Amino acid sequence: MLDRPLAAVYDRISADQERRWLGDARRRLLADLRGDVLEIGAGTGANFQYYPPQARVTAIEPSPNFSKRAETKLAGAQAAVELRQADAQHLPFDDNAFDAAVATLVFCTIPDPMAALAEVRRVTKPGAPLLLIEHVRAQSSVHRFLLNLWGPCHKTLFVGCRLNRDTEANVRSAGFQVEEVRQLALEMGMVPVILIRATNAGG
Ligand SMILES: C[S@@+](CC[C@H](N)C(=O)[O-])C[C@H]1O[C@@H](n2cnc3c(N)ncnc32)[C@H](O)[C@@H]1O
Prior knowledge:
The protein is an alpha/beta fold. The chain has five helices and seven strands. The chain has one domain: 3-Layer(aba) Sandwich (Rossmann fold), CATH 3.40.50.150. A hairpin with a 3-residue loop joins strand 6 (176-187) and strand 7.
């Protein structure tokens, strides 16, 4: 599998970022969750330690290489976390099954983000929060141009990760009501990482 080397080094290459700001951002994002929570693209399970005990988490991850590493984090979770192999574009859950959904650094990589957002909308209850941390396309056209040059290498190295997604616009057009958008960091001086709090608008 192409993602095997990335899964093997993922925690090491993110360690500095986690220490500087990402760990804290994860903790704050997840602190108030309760009920049945769906996490999409759990990766190595970096969020597991931050779920509060009142949440019951179903975490999906399509890659067996990432899942293997996420399994090692289950024991450190305060919440009940179940890990399942699944693709966000075809979620194996009933309509309205979840009280909330979470994804961190995932919508950059899902091949069809609109299909995944439609699935998240289907499986979450009307009014359910959707909590995201995502890197998104650069604000200036010069930065976008530079990142488009680097984009193909980045996509290969980081197994499908795109640097030019407009996830806020995608979330809005998928029928979520966006309550908060905040920039958390500017990586490499040009890649914004944002927090999005939205709710399933229902209907
Ligand atoms: C950059 S990692 C982020 C992992 C983790 N969420 C985190 O915050 O560290 C992106 C993850 O998205 C997963 N992913 C890619 N395509 C996916 C899909 N179609 N459905 C669900 N997850 C997907 C990858 O396997 C990988 O684990």
